[in-house]
Design a protein that fits this description.
The protein is an alpha/beta fold and 348 residues long. Among the domains are: 104-195, Glutaredoxin (3-Layer(aba) Sandwich), CATH 3.40.30; 202-347, Glutaredoxin, CATH 3.40.30.10. The chain has helices at 2-10, 20-25, 27-97, 108-113, 127-142, 177-180, 184-194, 202-205, 221-227, 244-262, 308-319, 323-347, and strands at 104-105, 117-122, 150-155, 162-168, 171-176, 214-216, 233-239, 267-273, 291-296, 299-302. The termini are far apart.
Length: 348
């Protein structure tokens, strides 16, 4: 054993640095020796890349902000031009349409509830041309001192003949554009007679009327309806001679009037022919017939009912009649059906 140890100690150990085995065994030591330098290089490259990216981002951001500012300024400029153009257009339009401020555009509700109407037919494309004509026309009308004139207008570009329509009661008068351009004397000749109220002769109309419902005229409306309603409730029936439904209602109205009178019911039924009488002042306007108006203490309302059974139920509600009176009213209502049947037989 001692001999073997002495041989090992005396032997010279040599290492081949080019040995593949030795390179593998000492690889870890070699890499550790270069690790510090490698880290420094990577850190330096990382810092350079960061600076490069920051610089590129700043350039892109500045360029984007510049483009945004350009778009914002362009949008602001375009909006300003548009608003200025719209303002000028509106000023021009207001100058052309300011004469319409004291008039209303016609619709069904206005037409059904107004009387003494002057309706102008306008062309939107020619308002500047028509403005002065209409203003002069209105001034001439106002000189006539006609009360309660209602000025309305409508737009109709295709209207070539008529420039104005007059409505009073159930009457209508068309005025052409040539007539509208004429002098004030011609306007006086048209307007003064047209807006003069039309009324039937009360005495002559009710002569021999007996126990039938009283006819009311334009001139007697205040006395026969407004004043009388302060003592008795009044149903005023608006009718026309050319209304077929009014023709069917005629015997029922007269019979109900007689029934109320015989039973001392304080409800009078009266009739008003809107075909032969203009609407009286403070009278409820109605374009359709038959229409039932209820007046009490000088004030009136329009009843929505017009069918026979609905009218009977409404009258019963207003007068709070005994059951026997309502039954009689329903019996009288059959007169309408009988009259309708007889008329049908005559026309066959």
């Amino acid at each position: 054993m001692n001999k073997l140890l002495s041989i090992f100690n005396n032997t010279k150990l040599t290492i081949n640095t080019f040995s593949k085995r030795n390179f593998y065994n000492f690889k870890c030591i070699y890499e550790k020796g270069n690790f510090a330098n490698k880290c420094k290089n990577e850190k330096s490259n990382f810092n350079k890349n960061i600076q490069k990216y920051v610089a590129n981002y700043s350039n892109v951001k500045n360029k984007t902000n510049y483009n945004k500012r350009k778009i914002y300024i362009l949008t602001l400029l375009t909006s300003s031009i548009f608003c200025y153009s719209a303002l000028k257009w509106n000023e021009k339009r207001e100058k052309a349409t300011d004469f319409l401020n004291d008039m209303k555009e016609i619709n069904d509700d206005l037409f059904d509830n107004l009387d003494n109407i002057v309706l102008f037919v306008l062309n939107k494309k020619k308002l500047n041309e028509e403005k002065q004509k209409i203003q002069d026309f209105k001034q001439e009308i106002e000189k006539l001192n006609i009360r309660n004139i209602n000025y309305l207008y409508t737009f109709h570009e295709e209207s070539k003949d008529y420039a104005c329509y007059l409505y009073k009661g159930r009457r209508r008068r068309n005025i052409t554009k040539n007539e509208l351009s004429n002098n004030s004397n011609y306007i006086t000749e048209i307007f003064k007679p047209f807006f003069t109220p039309v009324s039937e002769d009360f005495e002559k109309l009710n002569e021999g009327n007996g126990n039938f419902a009283t006819f009311v005229t334009h001139d007697t409306f205040e006395r026969e309806v407004i004043e009388d309603s302060k003592k008795n409730d009044i149903i005023l029936v608006l009718f026309e001679n050319t209304c077929f439904l009014c023709f069917l209602y005629k015997p029922l109205i007269n019979t109900l009037h007689k029934l109320f009178e015989e039973n001392n019911i304080k409800l009078k039924i009266k009739k008003y022919n809107i075909e032969n009488n203009d609407y009286a002042p403070n009278m409820i306007i109605s374009r359709g017939t038959p229409t039932f108006l209820f007046y009490q203490n000088g004030k009136g309302i329009k009843l929505d009912e017009y069918k026979p059974n609905e009218v009977i139920n409404k009258l019963d509600h207003l007068i709070k009649s005994p059951k026997s009176i309502k039954e009689q009213m329903l019996e009288k209502m059959e007169l309408i059906h009988t009259r309708m049947h007889q008329f049908g037989l005559l026309t066959m």
